Amino acid sequence: MSIQSMTLREWLLSETPTSRRQARLAAYYKGWLTLRANHMAMAGLAIIVLLVGVAIFAPLLAPHDPYYQDLGNRLQPLGTEGHILGTDSLGRDILSRLIWGARITLYIVALVAMIAPIVGLLVGTVSGYAGGWVDIVLMRVTDIFLAFPRLVLALAFVAALGAGIENAVLAISLTAWPPYARLARAETLTIRSSDFISAIRLQGAGPLLIITKHIWPLCISSLIVRVTLDMAGIILAAAGLGFLGLGAQPPSPEWGAMISEGRRFILDYWWVATMPGLAIFAVSLAFNLLGDGLRDVLDPKDSSS
Amino acid sequence: MAFYSNVPKRQPWLPLPPWARSMGITLLSVSITMLGLLFVTFLIGRVMPIDPVLAVVGERASEEQYNAVYQELGLDRSLIVQFFYYVGDVLQGDFGKSLLTARPVSQDIARVFPATFELATIGIIFGCVLGIPLGVIAAVRRGSWVDQIARVVALVGYSMPIFWLGLMGLLLFYGMLGWVGGPGRQGIFYEDMIPSVTGMILVDSIIAGDWGAFWDAFSHIVLPASILGYYSLAYISRMTRSFMLEQLSAEYITTARVKGMSEWAVVMHHAFKNIRVQLITVIALSYANLLEGSVLTEIIFSWPGIGNYITTALLSADMNAVLGGTVVVGLVFIVLNVFSDLLYKVFDPRSK
Amino acid sequence: MNAFTRLISSAALGLAMGVTALPALSATPDNMLVIANRIDDITTLDPAQSFEFAGADVIRNIYGKLVNFDPSNLEAGYQPDLAESWTVSEDGKTITFTMREGVKFHSGNPVRAEDAAFSLRRVVKLNKTPAFILTQFGFTPENVDDVITVDGNTLSITTDKRYATSFVLNCLTATLGAIVDEKLVMEHEKDGDMGNEWLMTNSAGSGPYTLSSWKPKESVTLTANPDYYDGAPAMQRVIVRHVQESATQRLMLERGDVDVARDLTPADVDGLDGVEGVGVQREMRGRLMYVSFNQKHPELSKPQVRQALKYLIDYDGMENSFLKNWYVKHQNFLPKTYLGAVDENPFSLNLEKAKELLAEAGVPEGMELTVGVREAQERLEIAQSLQNTFAQAGIKLNLEVGTGKQILGKYRARELDIYLGAWGPDYPDPQTNAGTFAYNPDNSDEANATGLLAWRNAWDTGGLTTEVEAAVVEGDTEKRAEMYHQIQAQFRETSPFAIMFQLVEQAGISENVEGLNLGGAITAAAYWDVTK
Question: Which residues are CB-contacts of A233 (< 8 A; sequence separation ≥ 6)?
């Protein structure tokens, strides 16, 4: 059978990969198949895809301007004509604000997901690979940040730099990286002592090359799992900062800030706080479901589950 | 460690027995971490654009009054000098005075920490009592409806904004049903009635032999503790399941099954026994998180705990209070970590 | 009950299967008053130092003063309290008080003229933030022993100039006028602090209540003084509990766990409508909400721009929506019920006029300004409303949100373009606000008069400073009131302050509670007339 006559699927599932690329793609594809069989993970993925779609097409989807105020038309209930999810305290359309808020949520999630694991990966692999004093110093620093009450550290940081979404992201990243560093260090220690690294080292590869080319790729999968599972925590932390007034600034339709604004009416106009609450809940849940599924696929330790 | 094995082992520079050495190293690393923690907190406090003097004198103060307090707080000295003075005081057990409560920080912490401790302890008990069995059953009956429910319960717990859950819980269980006591640690009837011995009202009321006060305090703590506990339940049950699955697929379990041991005995005597150590680490970690104090829960339930204390202090630049609170929380965290590490070493056959 | 609460309760009923009856509402004991209130602003209970709302409430109930307000009749003005009577010297500079006989402090010590003199001198000597209320009469730590003197049962106060007697006496009704127990306080003196450290957390008064405990951010407990000279109060204990959230306060009130809830949002006040056994008590307070424009800003310092911005505020829209029944429109710096207060509110949202004025001033299109706002929901909403209306005239308004201390620090350093904030009077005399909004003798940066609002906005007051100085020494009350009318008329037209609203406190209150007074616009809450 020539390669041309194989379907893509057959090529990917081939027992005898002919190239390294094929082997790698095959591994991804098998992972995808496993993941696809996990309905809950797929549901999570669907919600996230939906979120991305909503964020991209926000200008088209939102029925109103998210900032347009109408004080004469405030706190309208669910199902009001023109305002399916009602209006908030300043008469702004809640649905439109939720839709535009999806962009902010994605922005937070993406930024934190870029910063924290990468910092953690750097610190962890360097620490684990170098050992000795470097390890001791870096791990002490990690411990210091771990021992800090997390919200306090984030609060202090935001208070120092000023409230705002970028600073909130930085603050959350600052509190989020130590566990990744620990994780990466542990993985590095295992990998470092493995035979194949010794072999590469004997071939004359320098530490930089070994770390970037050989250790990082191996750490990535467990980091991805961890990041996805942490994502919900990040969204909630951002919402918590918003709730305390230190996250996104008004009139920005950030979901946490929306809850905070709406919590004053929670007993009588429950939807004002509940709608963004549900949005946060749905997205957090989605990331958790996906992370759970990804763990089954990627994390070798739990591959049995 | 193949590569490093040819490095000759150095002689220890202190002729001490190994246990003393390891203890010494632990102590040393703990104190370095603490010092670092102090320094970072201190720096944060100084770079913050919040003015501690304003926290003392308020909006109306004249420049002269402002300057008087500025000097009184020692802010005219250089940063390093301030830091050394502070560390010196802390080593003598003096955390300084809080600007906001007009009393020594140590006295404040003695008041707020037991409140958090009580809440976190009940919370973690709740999380363990429900979370561990849920995790075990989910692992044993993998893929069954129990597993699915456990998964949903856990993931929902991870995903819910806590302040929303807290407010709704209050509305339902307190406002409408009246099953639990309202916000605060006790009903007004018992306010100031129980002599404070430990600062934990549940314990103090038992010491005083006042069961009415005990049930009152219990009815106030049960809701915030369950809400906090729900979060640790989610974490604990997921981790238990994961650990159990690992064990259940191990060879010795198969052997035990083949030998004809009952399923119950296999699960409890072999698998569960082996995950105890890992589980303790997980529990210690979530306990430490609870002990940091959940600011949001504390605000909603008017719970005078340490999370709330540090946060308010921070936002008013009450740095003595922030530093004191952070040190205590950091210490608790580190102690719990060291403790779980120790347990690991004692119980885990592999690390020997 | 709305749809959601019905939904929840039916869900709850489902949950409650098997529970036949819901537990009866709890109630507070008959001789106890329980109040839910945000009291995290209390940082000290020393009357010479305390300067926050919740602290003033506590101190008013613990300490007697020379002259005081009767909670059942605030309109009557100051009345004799620990001073039975007083006379004014012919030159109008010396007031001599005769002390009430037979009154005792909680400690059992008699209340003497010496105690009164000690208390007032102590304020001046400690020189804490509120001390200016006394030092404005020319008292200094050096001369205070000579100008506040005791002769037997009388106490004399001599001011540096002739002031309206009502002005001096009104100042003595402020929190710092509390008379403390000299013997007890000095027993606790430490390093010459005149007992300041001890008094921050303890009490040494002669008032209707004694302080049992103050747990910061948790509660204040007061116990009745059975020997109070005007009769022991009916409520044996008063507990003020710190409850942060309005929704929580409302739930506690509805459940009967508190008698009074003092920080309800308008939505929660509306929600109390129709709840059995609970009512709403409304009192006009003295606090004003305003925005001010920094005169260091080249555009904002143009008179037309200042006026234009005053026409770009949707006063009515806000008052009738999210501020409903909570803040009422008020565009003058003297709060309603004050001597000299006026009701003229000429400004309303007027886009045409604002644009006209801006064009006249030659303001560039798309001007950007930054407003500093404290992190508090109603202020954020006002700020967003401003943002909305300013935008309609082509001005982009950015919000800078921070904690109170953060924003205040910048405001005091004259660094903000625009400040949105609140101001509460310090004592019930027009001078309290005139002396800060319209008084600024030295507008230079070096003057550092950070206590004056006019200075903070770099406004030289356009001549109002001298008029304020003249009004404060005017002895004739009617004439004095007329002077304030004129100052305010000019202030409205020229000042960089857009005063917007005056606070109405809406407390949810259990219907069996009677006689509670929150202090109106002039003083703090009083618990001793409360009955159940």
Answer: B158
Examine the domain organization and report whether C131 and C226 are in the same domain.
no
Q: Read off the CATH number of the domain in which C420 is found.
A: 3.10.105.10
Task: Check residue C194 and give its pLDDT.
Answer: 93
Mutate to test the interface with C, among A70, A80, A268, A275 (most CBs of C within 10 A): A268
Tell me the average pLDDT across C147-161: 94
Structure tokens, C331: 């565009």
Torsion sign over Cα B190, B196, B198, B199: positive
In a domain, residue A198? The reply is yes
Q: CATH code at A171?
A: 1.10.3720.10
Lowest mean pLDDT among B3-12, B232-241, C236-245: B3-12
Domain boundary residue, one of C207, C236, C256? C207
Contacts of C46 by beta carbon, 8 Å cutoff, 6+ apart? C128, C196, C199, C200
CA–CA separation, B52 and B45 (whole Å): 9
Write down the residue that tokens 């000095």 correspond to. C186
Is C409 near chain A, with CB under 8 Å?
no
- Structural domain boundaries enclosing C349: 285-504
Which amino acid would we find at residue C241?
A: R
Q: Give the bridge partners for C368, in sequence order.
A: C396
Closest CA to C244 of B224, B303, B227, B218: B303
CATH 3.40.50.1970 fits B107-351, yes or no: no
Domain termination residue (choose one: C284, C314, C330)? C284
Q: What percent of chain A lies above the pLDDT cut of 90?
A: 8
C402:A162 CB<8 A: yes
Same domain, C344 and C474: yes
- Interface contact A159-B50, CB threshold 8 A: yes
Higher per-residue pLDDT: B16 or C28: C28
* Element spanning C405, H or E: helix C404-412
Mean pLDDT of chain C: 89
Q: Which residue of C has its CA nearest to A68?
A: C388
pLDDT tens sequence across C466-477: 999 999 888 888
Q: Which residue from A249, A253, A238 is spatially nearest to A168, judged by alpha carbons?
A: A238
| Residue tagged 């119980």 (tokens) | B347
Please state, in angstroms and rounded to a whole number, the distance separating the CA atoms of residues A136 and A125: 13
In the block, residue with structure tokens 């409520």: C235
CB contact, 8 Å: A157 with chain C?
Answer: no
In whole angstroms, how far apart are CA C475 and each of C167, C438, C483?
9, 20, 12
Angle between helices A94-130 and A255-262 (to 10 degrees): 130
Based on the fold, state whether residues C133 and C278 are members of the same structural domain. Answer: no
CATH number of the domain encompassing residue C71: 3.90.76.10
Q: Is residue A87 part of a domain?
A: no
Integer Cα distance of A143 and A133 in angstroms:
15
Rounded to a whole number, what is the distance in Å from the CA of C48 to chain A's nearest CA?
31
pLDDT tens column, B29-87: 788 888 888 888 787 777 776 777 877 777 777 888 888 888 888 788 887 888 888 88
How do residues C87-99 score in pLDDT, each as one tens digit?
A: 999 998 999 999 9
Please report the pLDDT score of residue B293 as a whole number. 62
The Cα A295–Cα B337 span in angstroms is: 26
User: Do the chains contact at B334 and A147, CB–CB below 8 Å?
Assistant: yes
Mean pLDDT on B316-343:
82
The whole-angstrom separation of Cα C360 and Cα B58 is: 40
Residue C252 contacts residue C240 (beta carbons within 8 Å):
no
**Which three-class secondary structure state does DSSP give residue C209?**
strand
The minimum CA-CA distance between C377 and chain A, rounded to whole Å, is 7
Q: Dig out the tokens for A32 from the structure.
A: 């995808």
For residues B283 and B240, what is the distance between their CA atoms, to the nearest angstrom? 10
pTM of this prediction?
Answer: 0.84
Looking at the structure, do residues C356 and C226 belong to the same domain, yes or no?
no
Nearest CB among A256, A266, A285 relative to B167 is that of: A266
